[in-house]
TrEMBL record:
PANTHER family: FLAVIN REDUCTASE LIKE DOMAIN-CONTAINING PROTEIN (PTHR33798:SF5), FLAVOPROTEIN OXYGENASE (PTHR33798). This is Flavin reductase (DIM6/NTAB) family NADH-FMN oxidoreductase RutF. Its cofactor is FMN. Keywords: Flavoprotein, FMN. InterPro entries: Flavin_Rdtase-like_dom, Split_barrel_FMN-bd.
Length: 214
C-alpha cells in the first residue's frame, strides 16, 4: 500500500506514523504555572537528539480549539521543564497525568506521585521516576498546531539501583523503561539482548556466515 502524505488527512497521518515508528520512549514532563501549581503530562513524541550539547526534543499538539496545552504555555513562560522516564512502577500514574485536568490541578499529587524540588529549574522532580532530566528550553518552533521544543539538559537524576557503582552503565535488570507502540499499546524493556557490530572484516565474514545471535 502507498500513502500520499501530501494528500492524506491529519488523523490518518498520525495513525500511520505513530503505529509504525515505535516503540517511542515516553517523557513524563513537569512544568509549573505562574501561580506555582505543578503540571505533569506524558508525551511519546519525544527523544534525545544530541549529547554535545545535550538536547531533548518534545513534540506537542495544541488543543482541538487551538489553545495551547498547559505544558506548552508553561514552557513558553518559564523556559524550563523536567523530563522523567517511566517504568512499570509508575505506568498507571503516568496515564492519569494524561487526563485533561483544569489548569489549577496538581497532576503530580492527583496521580499519587511525590514532587520534590529540582536542582537548577523551577519545575518539580517526580521522586518515583527512575531517571529525570532538568531542561532549559533552547528553541521553541511552531508548525501550525504542532510545537517542537528543543531542551538542553542541565541536570540529571538517576536512582542509585539503576546504574552501576561507577555511574557509567545502566543496569538493564533494574532500569526497564516502558515505551508506546500504537493506540493504547505499550512495551516494557524487560527482554533485552546484545547485538554488537563486527570489529573488522574477518569478523564480519564469520558473522555473515553464522548470522547474528540473540
Amino acid at each position: 500500500m502507498k500513502f500520499d502524505f501530501e494528500e492524506l488527512p491529519e488523523q490518518d497521518r498520525y495513525r500511520l506514523l505513530s503505529n509504525f515508528v515505535g516503540p517511542r520512549p515516553i517523557a513524563l514532563v513537569t512544568t509549573v504555572d505562574e501561580h506555582g501549581c505543578n503540571n505533569a503530562a506524558p508525551m511519546s513524541f519525544f527523544n534525545v537528539f544530541s549529547h554535545d550539547p545535550p538536547l531533548l526534543i518534545l513534540g506537542m499538539q495544541s488543543r482541538p480549539d487551538g489553545t495551547p496545552k498547559d505544558t506548552v504555555a508553561n514552557i513558553r513562560r518559564a523556559g524550563e521543564f523536567v523530563v522523567h522516564m517511566v517504568d512499570m512502577a509508575i505506568a498507571k500514574q503516568m496515564i492519569i497525568t494524561g487526563i485533561n485536568f483544569p489548569s489549577d490541578v496538581d497532576e503530580i499529587a492527583f496521580a499519587g506521585l511525590t514532587s520534590i524540588p529540582s536542582t537548577k529549574v523551577g519545575a518539580s522532580l517526580i521522586k518515583e521516576s527512575p531517571c529525570a532530566m532538568e531542561c532549559r528550553a533552547s528553541q521553541i518552533l511552531d508548525y501550525g498546531r504542532r510545537v517542537i521544543v528543543i531542551g538542553e539538559v542541565v541536570q540529571m537524576h538517576v536512582h542509585d539501583d539503576c546504574i552501576d557503582e561507577n555511574g557509567r552503565y545502566v543496569r538493564p535488570e533494574v532500569y526497564q523503561p516502558i515505551a508506546r507502540l500504537h493506540a493504547d499499546n505499550y512495551i516494557v524493556a524487560d527482554n533485552q539482548f546484545e547485538l554488537k557490530k563486527p570489529s573488522d572484516l574477518l569478523q564480519l565474514e564469520a558473522w555473515a556466515v553464522s548470522g547474528p545471535n540473540r
